[in-house]
Design a protein that fits this description.
Low-confidence stretches: none
Strand content: under 5%
Order of helices and strands: EHHHHHHHEHHHHHHHH
Radius of gyration: 21 Å
Mean pLDDT: 86
Number of strands: 2
Number of helices: 15
Largest sheet: 2 strands, parallel
Helix content: over 70%
Length: 410
């Protein structure tokens, strides 16, 4: 069994075996599988299974069920360490991605997508918890910005290889899925074997935690999940369905996205650290409101592919500011609440995600602009709620309407 090392003693380890290095490694490994799956998905299901907006809506609804059930992580953590669960989940994501092309039917895609989604959502739940436990509050925004940059760089590398080799080497879906998923699984297994187990100084609650003073964080998570789901499901699907993007064109657009995010994420982290979560979340939500209204304008005014592609990149840039919500919670949370609240918040984030893709898939086939107008309304509501975040949030001062008060450890 791997050696257990308290966080306070990790400075004696080689740099590559420290907690921060593991966070960076996981940030690089996950997108290799997930980003490739996302890049090929719309073309794969249209080419092999004849999906329309209805089927893609159902596929994403099934994909979000494990996110909705992320609260089950709390029960698993009674028996498994968070670090182990993160790497096992990452392995499952890699293996399921590798096998995706062997399931080219509606039922098959629902099954393999469910497996990969369990890996993805359970990994993301625990990974978020580990980041907030392992990184000091004073520097967490900047470090998380660099972690996001590494993830974007890994996605950029994966997409670049697809663009360069898809046509020239005559690749098929099975080859690309197998290679990308295999890399992720191998990196996860290597991390499981090579890294010691890191012990946080604050033991985590092993029960569900719902605290009234976290209400603003919960509500912003709910709206973020609903809003992001509309983007993830329908923005990329629009590029294929309306503008006929091929695999290499979709991947090229994703490459631009991740290049922008790779360069911008460290800067965003510095801005969060300097100006606070309140200001950055206000900028994010104001920008997303305008972007979603412009998406609707593509259908209302007939704007072309250049506008759609530009909006897609800008959209990703604003979504890149969302990690400010994580560091807001880190500042207001009881240290023992981080793991269970990460699970609860993922479930809250996915409440609408389980319902919206299938329901909006039917609206999409008749009035696609309305789908984006709905997302704009959610972003506008999030903007209003962002004004309730204090400039310097802390335990006992979670919102501007909360009177500052000491909160005993729970």
């Amino acid at each position: 069994m791997a050696r257990t090392v308290p966080l306070s003693e990790t400075s004696s380890l080689p740099v590559w075996r420290r907690p921060e290095a593991l966070l960076f490694l996981m940030a690089a490994a996950m997108p290799v599988a997930f980003a490739t799956w996302s890049a090929l998905l719309n073309n794969f299901v249209i080419d092999t299974a004849g999906f329309t907006g209805v089927e893609i809506g159902w596929l994403h609804t099934v994909r979000e069920i494990p996110g909705f059930l992320a609260i089950g992580v709390i029960a698993i953590l009674l028996f498994v360490r968070e670090q182990v669960l993160a790497l096992v989940s990452l392995t499952l994501l890699g293996v399921a991605t590798a096998l995706t092309a062997w399931f080219p039917t509606f039922g098959g895609m629902l099954f393999i997508t469910l497996l990969s989604s369990i890996g993805f959502h359970y990994f993301e739940t625990v990974n978020q918890s580990l980041q907030l436990q392992w990184l000091p509050k004073a520097t967490a925004p900047r470090t998380i910005g660099w972690i996001a940059s590494v993830g974007a760089g890994a996605s950029l590398l994966a997409y670049g290889l697809i663009v360069l080799t898809w046509r020239t080497l005559g690749l098929d879906y099975s080859t690309v899925y197998l290679a990308s998923g295999g890399v992720t699984a191998l990196l996860a297994v290597a991390a499981l074997l090579l890294y010691p187990q890191f012990d946080s100084p604050h033991p985590q609650n092993k029960r569900m935690v719902l605290r009234r003073r976290y209400w603003l964080y919960y509500l912003l998570q709910f709206l973020a999940g609903a809003r992001r789901q509309i983007f993830v499901v329908f923005a990329a699907f629009m590029m294929v369905e309306r503008f006929g993007f091929e695999v290499d064109a979709v991947t090229g657009l994703f490459m631009i996205n991740f290049l922008v995010n790779m360069l911008a994420s460290p800067w965003i982290g510095r801005m969060v650290q300097r100006h606070g979560e309140r200001r950055m979340l206000m900028i994010e939500h104001a920008g997303l409101t305008l972007v979603f209204l412009a998406y609707g304008g593509i259908y209302v005014f007939g704007w072309g592919v250049a506008v759609a592609a530009a909006l897609y990149v800008i959209d990703h840039l604003f979504f890149g500011m969302a990690f400010a919500l994580k560091t807001y919670f880190q500042k207001i949370a009881d240290p023992a609440d981080i793991a269970p609240t990460a699970a609860v918040s993922f479930t809250i984030n996915h409440i609408a995600a389980v319902v919206l893709p299938a329901a909006l898939g039917y609206l999409w086939v008749t009035e696609p602009a309305s789908v984006f107008v709905l997302a704009a309304g959610m972003a506008l509501l999030s903007l209003g709620l962002s004004f309730l975040i204090p400039r310097h949030p802390e335990r006992g001062y979670e919102t501007v309407i909360a009177r500052a008060r000491p909160v005993p450890a729970e």
